[in-house]
Amino acid sequence: MSASATKSAKRKSSLIPLGDRVVVEREEGEQKTAGGILLPDSAKDKPARGVVVSVGEGRLSEKGQRHPLQVKPGDRVVFTSYAGEPFKVGDSELLLMREDDILAILG
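The structure assignment produced for this chain is given below.
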């Protein structure tokens, strides 16, 4: 994990999602192709990976018990392409999504 991802995760720790929701900061897209061609912003793909900024308390079961989430702040994750609801906090664009939209934790 890069130092900037760690700093931004610590900076936004006061944003707490509810239930089984997770706040993720999307990683930057590739700036140029493998052949060295620089890509304009309109041609860049939005990556389906990012860093978890904060997590909710967990899903509430039918018996009224909380089940903690598997991800924690600082985890690098891979998520589905159209996962989450984008919103801006300050100068950062974040995604609010359910834990079910996260496919894997990157080691």
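Interim note for the steering committee: Strands lie at 21-26, 49-55, 59-60, 66-67, 76-79, 85-89, 92-98, 102-106. The domain at 3-106 is CATH 2.30.33.40 (10 Kd Chaperonin, Protein Cpn10; Chain O).
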